[in-house]
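Suppose a classmate hands you a notebook page containing two proteins, each written out with its sequence and a corresponding row of structure tokens. How would you begin to make sense of it? This section walks through that situation. The first entry is reproduced here exactly as it would appear on such a page.
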Amino acid sequence: MQKILAILNKYSILINSICIVFWLYIIYENYKASQEGNSFDERKSYFIIPTLFILLSVFNMYMVEKRKRRN
């Protein structure tokens, strides 16, 4: 378990960056689909969850930097 946590701590910024790119891609695809179908009002809720995950990843990156500065 300690090895897994060490790897996650070491590569957490990279992992969170990949997650942010993934969620931005999901938002872009939802936006493109809503523009093609003219259903933006119906699909507004599809943008909330990816945005929350992006904010969570940014918060995790902030906490990693804060932990590194403290040590």
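The notebook's second entry, a different protein, reads as follows.
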Amino acid sequence: MGEWIDFDRWPECAGMERPGIVFEVQNEERQTMTTGCVIPLPLPFDWTSGPVRFRIVEQETPRHSEPLPPPSSAN
């Protein structure tokens, strides 16, 4: 993981984007979210304060979900 960067520098995120990385954003209450470089950044509905810092993190490897069960036969 990268070092924390002051959120005032968020507009610079476009120059930091690379394949396989995303950004972890943190607010004053230490709530975090993971996102790509989106300006302006949409915040989660339950955040009561704005973001204060961000850092570069590796994107999680996608996981396959379990297959859906077959439909039940309703007669």
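A careful reader of the second entry would note: The helical segments are 13-16.
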